[in-house]
Write a structure and sequence with these properties.
The chain is an alpha+beta fold. The protein is 30% helix and 27% strand. It contains 5 helices and 8 strands, in the order βαβαββαββββαα. Strands 1, 2, 3, 4, 5, 6, 7 and 8 form an 8-stranded mixed beta sheet that branches. Bound molecules: inosinic acid.
Length: 194
């Protein structure tokens, strides 16, 4: 069984990732204690790299996987983007702020983006990818599942709100699932064959 440190302090992400990874012979472990890397990159991939590098210093596995994700709204020039987690103080307030910034805006197209970076124990990048989940921002919240901006995001591929999807459905279409599948296939087809 290959153990990989998952560079996150977000238990929702760990849960979503483990649902997808369970078919592969891989165990994702979360670093012990506080996880507070400085994310000072100006794009998703750079910020994922900040987290992977930080985890590689405190963990003791062979590989480190970090993700950085966010919601990009077309009419707001890609905002909140890399600032999605910091857009307002709480998830409810972030949704409120976004809906209020989109009042009277007709173009509601948006996408969730997820960058993933895999490093070794030295913090050297072995693999990276960035995938998207397309949809639009609904006028009001729908559904009880998911986290973050899920209640206001309509998923094109499912024709339903992200928070209306089951965990298994979200694992088929989400930006995080798409990036993770690229990582898992790289491990299976390239890394494990070395
Ligand atoms: P990160 O933890 O630095 O990657 O920040 C990601 C932020 O983007 C989260 O705190 C959420 O606000 C938002 N986000 C990313 N992925 C999702 C998702 O799958 N659903 C809802 N919100 C998400």
């Amino acid at each position: 069984m290959l153990k990989i440190t998952l560079a996150t302090g977000n238990s929702h992400k760990a849960e979503e990732i483990n649902i997808i990874a369970k078919e592969y012979n891989i165990e994702f472990v979360v670093p012990e204690g506080e996880f507070n890397p400085i994310e000072d990159g100006d794009n998703f991939l750079d910020n994922a790299y900040c987290k992977a590098k930080y985890a590689s210093k405190i963990g003791n596995t062979e590989l480190y996987l970090a993700d950085d994700s966010g919601l990009c709204v077309e009419a707001l020039n890609g905002e909140p983007g890399i600032y999605s987690a910091r857009y307002a103080e709480t998830p409810k307030l972030r949704i409120k702020k976004l809906l209020s910034n989109m009042q009277n805006i007709k173009n509601r197209r948006a996408k969730f983006v997820c960058a993933m970076v895999v490093t070794d124990k030295n913090g050297s990048i072995l693999f990276k990818t960035q995938q998207e989940c397309l949809g639009y921002i609904m006028e009001e919240e729908k559904g009880e599942g998911g986290f973050g901006y899920d209640p206001i995001f309509f998923v094109d591929d499912m024709q339903k709100g992200m928070a209306e999807l089951t965990k298994e459905e979200k694992a088929q279409v989400s930006h995080r699932a798409k990036s993770l599948n690229k990582v898992l296939n790289w491990i299976k087809n390239e890394y494990n064959k070395k």
